[in-house]
From TrEMBL, chain A:
The keyword Protein biosynthesis does not apply. It holds the Pfam family NTF2. This is Nuclear transport factor 2. Its main location: cytoplasm. InterPro entries: NTF2 (IPR045875), NTF2-like_dom_sf (IPR032710), NTF2_dom (IPR002075), Nuclear_transport_factor_2_euk (IPR018222). Facilitates protein transport into the nucleus. Could be part of a multicomponent system of cytosolic factors that assemble at the pore complex during nuclear import. Has a role in nuclear-cytoplasmic transport of proteins and mRNAs.
Automatic annotation (TrEMBL), chain B:
One of its GO terms (molecular function) is RNA binding. This is mRNA export factor MEX67. The keyword Magnesium does not apply. Belongs to the NXF family. It comes from the Eukaryota.
Length: 123, 679
């Protein structure tokens, strides 16, 4: 990945949602055992639990559309990313708006998701 | 679309007339492409197309019936716009003027298109209709005739308008666009109309050089106006007559069926002059003009028939949904709709529609199409005579809270020694009143702040227009801002720069965290591994990541207009440097967007108490607790907040007891005890 934290953020976000929308089980590669996912206030720790949580979400088809993306250099060489966008699931006609905060941490030339906080913010 | 006019009739009546292979030419689209007349059916939206294109299309136009025969090619406007021989100008009316422009779509077609675009809601916008009347200023511009541009297509009017709009924005160093709403060329003069604000900017271009000619721009004294040509007034009168004849006041029906066979429209040669889409839009403009208020319109027209108009997609009659958003009954039978997709553009429109007739369309009674169409209109009960929903079902559905496939949970606040609670409470109080103190207290040399703005938002009916001019200069949305230096400039590092950025943002007012806690969603989690400011803890120190979502009001520094907006904000906070404030902000990311209320919380968090908010365990104050409990009870029972409070009062603010009481008394509660649907 790129060295510049902004490019990191952008590449990561593109990759993350693309992967999420095609096969979210594959997101396992982005998490570690110390990673924490907070999905609508239910928090789970560790890759396995996170993937289980994501897989169990009550929809099959999903499409993310990013509206805003901002990133800041985080602690210890990490990157803090705030995304807002729209989410369209299954047959639902109206998109749902969400925000998601990622705390990315560097690891041997790449990054993993340390914190992932997802929230639906308005309908 | 649609009202097919004499030509189409000829085709159908005379089977021997040459038709395109493939038989019946459905929409106007196909006919336009192969037919003898018009190629510029999209001219109204084709803002930047060279005028020559339109000219070529119009070249085949038969002489119009009003006597002023148009030249075979080239700009019509210049010949038509000869002053009406010293006659006193007739009072201008917006509708007539607009109709003229829509129908003509002549040299300055781009302008009429702009006007049209203002009402063409196929483009998503939250802006309301173009301002009319009150705030408009008419300016007279001299110098176009002397300029080199006058030999351009359309007499150079289009070039002049573009020049004025751009120049006014650059000269005024504006961070918004300047818009000319209307324009007319009369002899050597060009009359333009813009809103007051923009007109002021345009006036600054007075004396500037345009294509080797000096422009003079001055405001027309109030009351005088360039006037309408007799022709456009008569056009308006005739179309008004058409509408009048087709309106049945008693049944509140506007019958626009078989427009192609309308004797007046035929006599006017309307379909030779303009595409059916434009004729329809002109009719809608006049229709709107005939009602003074939205309410009068709503009460005056309940039903519209557009039967027998050859329509194959609702985008051809988009203006119907704009002109009559509250329409109850619509007859689209005997048209060319072939599937549900052809109605999809109305999926967020005509929300009140109760009956829709689609018989005698190619789509037939295809069950899946009918199901999809039913879905498009939430209150639809009668689809081509078949009951698709009962009134009760519609009422029930509109009452029910929107259910999200993802359960939504409220606030999850896992605080450490109430540090997070203290921080957010102080933060927003100070952010609204004393940002300087706030920045000095929590932001040190390494603290970072940035924000991003989502300018596009879901269409909210009747919402006032929202501008982002005070924010957009500093917005750091990476989706839009891709230039590295621009991104760099918009990242504020260190207290002084953060404070400087804040000082450029409008004043704000956030709801009180203690009293109006329900207006926020806050998550707070401990986060380990933060860099230790003292450097002594190699493994890093414990901090917190806080994400907040809520609303606020701000005041535009120039216009003093207050607007309500929504925000999301992520903080990372950690222990401060020794000798300074014990808490420091490590990162602060803010996101702003148009206001929209937080969603109803539909889920029950797993494994934690229902009310995991700080108020449950560490009450901020008793009122907030009671408020929070009332919200919780309302959430669980569907009762209104007031009834929830009454119930809690009786149960001495014991949630369990209140719930038990509710279950006992449920059957006896009046209907008003339950939350009413939001229309």
């Amino acid at each position: 990945m790129a060295a510049n934290f902004e490019d990191v953020a952008k590449q990561f976000v593109n990759f993350y949602y693309q992967q999420f929308d095609t096969d979210r089980k594959q997101l396992a590669a982005l998490y570690r055992d110390q990673s924490m996912l907070t999905f609508e206030s239910s928090a789970v720790l560790g890759t396995n639990a996170i993937v289980e949580k994501l897989s169990a979400l009550p929809f099959q088809q999903v499409k993310h559309q990013v509206a805003t993306l901002d990133a800041q250099p985080g602690v210890n060489g990490g990157v803090l990313v705030l995304v807002t966008g729209q989410l369209l699931v299954d047959e639902e006609q109206r998109p749902m708006n969400y925000t998601q905060t990622f705390q990315l941490m560097p690891e041997s030339g790449s990054f993993f998701v340390f914190n992932d906080i997802f929230k639906l913010v308005y309908g | 679309m649609a009202p097919s006019g004499p030509r189409a009739q000829r085709n159908t009546r005379n089977p021997s007339a040459p038709t395109k292979p493939g038989g019946r030419s459905g929409g106007i689209k196909k006919r336009g492409a192969g037919g003898p007349v018009r190629t510029d059916r999209d001219g109204d939206l084709d803002m930047d197309a060279p005028a020559a294109k339109g000219g070529a299309g119009r070249g085949n136009r038969p002489p119009n019936t009003n006597g002023t025969s148009a030249p075979p090619t080239g700009p019509r406007r210049s010949t038509r716009s000869a002053p009406a021989g010293g006659r006193a100008p007739k009072p201008t009316t917006r509708a007539a003027d607009m109709v003229k422009k829509i129908v003509e779509s002549g040299g300055s077609g781009n302008l009429s298109s702009r006007i049209a675009a203002g009402r063409d809601t196929s483009s998503r916008h939250t802006r309301s209709r173009p301002v009319n009347g009150v705030d408009r200023v008419t300016l007279v511009v001299r110098g176009l005739k002397e300029s080199k541009a006058s030999s351009n297509d359309g007499g150079g009017l289009r070039d002049l308008l573009i020049f004025l709009e751009r120049k006014a924005a650059t000269v005024g160093k504006l961070h918004r666009t300047v818009k000319i709403n209307k324009s007319t060329m009369k002899g050597d003069l060009v009359y333009i109309t813009a809103n007051k604000e923009d007109a002021e900017e345009i006036k600054k271009i007075n004396g500037f050089e345009f294509a080797s000619a000096r422009l003079s721009i001055e405001e027309l004294p109030e009351g005088t106006s360039p006037g309408l040509s007799e022709q456009s007034q008569s056009l308006k009168d005739q179309l008004t007559t058409v509408l009048g004849q087709r309106y049945n006041q008693e049944s509140k029906l506007m019958n626009l069926s078989d427009l192609g066979q309308d004797p007046i429209l035929q006599q006017m040669g309307m379909f030779n002059q303009a595409t059916p889409e434009k004729v329809f839009r002109a009719l809608m403009v006049i229709l709107e003009d005939n009602f003074k208020t939205a309410q009068a319109k709503r009460e005056g027209i309940h039903s519209v028939s557009l039967a027998g108009n050859n329509i194959d997609d609702v985008h051809q009659i988009m203006s119907l949904a704009d002109a009559l958003p509250d329409l109850l009954n619509l007859d689209l039978s005997r048209n060319m709709f072939k599937d549900a997709k052809a109605l999809r553009k109305w999926s967020h429109r005509l929300r009140k529609l109760e009956a829709l007739y689609l018989s005698d369309n190619p789509v037939g009674t295809d069950a899946s199409a009918m199901a999809e169409i039913t879905k498009l209109f939430p209150r639809l009960q009668n689809l081509s005579g078949v009951q698709v929903r009962t009134k009760e079902e519609v009422e029930a559905a509109s009452r029910a809270p929107r259910v999200f496939p993802i359960p939504q949970f409220g606030t999850d606040f896992r605080d450490l020694n109430r540090v997070g609670e203290g921080f957010v409470t102080e933060f927003f109080a100070l952010y609204d009143t004393d940002r300087q103190t706030l920045a000095a207290k929590y932001y040190d040399e390494q603290s970072t702040f940035s924000f991003s703005v989502m300018t596009s938002s879901a269409h909210i009916p009747n919402a006032p227009p929202l501008t982002w001019s005070s924010y957009i200069r500093l917005s750091r949305n990476h989706v839009r801002i891709t230039h590295p230096p621009s991104r760099y400039q918009r990242l504020f590092v260190g207290g002084p720069l953060v404070q400087d950025a804040w000082s450029k943002l409008p004043l704000t007012r956030h709801p009180s965290l203690t009293v109006e806690f329900d207006k926020y969603l806050i998550d707070c989690h401990p986060m380990s591994g933060l860099a230790d400011p003292t450097g002594s803890e190699l493994g890093g120190v414990e901090g917190m990541i806080i994400t907040m979502h809520g609303e606020f009001e701000d005041q535009d520094p120039e216009t003093k207009v207050t607007s309500k907006r929504s925000f999301s904000r992520t903080f990372v906070i950690g222990p401060g440097f020794p000798g300074r404030n014990p808490i420091r902000v490590v990162s602060d990311l803010l996101q702003l967007r148009a206001y929209s209320p937080l969603p109803p919380q539909t889920g029950v968090p797993e494994g934690i108490q229902t009310s995991a908010a700080p108020v449950a365990n560490a009450p901020i104050n008793p009122v907030a607790t009671q408020e929070q409990m009332a919200i919780e009870l309302s959430k669980q029972t569907g009762m209104t907040l007031d009834y929830s409070k009454m119930c809690l009062d009786a149960a001495q603010y014991n949630l369990e007891r209140a719930l038990a009481t509710f279950n006992e008394m449920r059957a006896q509660l009046p209907a008003e005890a339950f939350a009413q649907p939001i229309a």
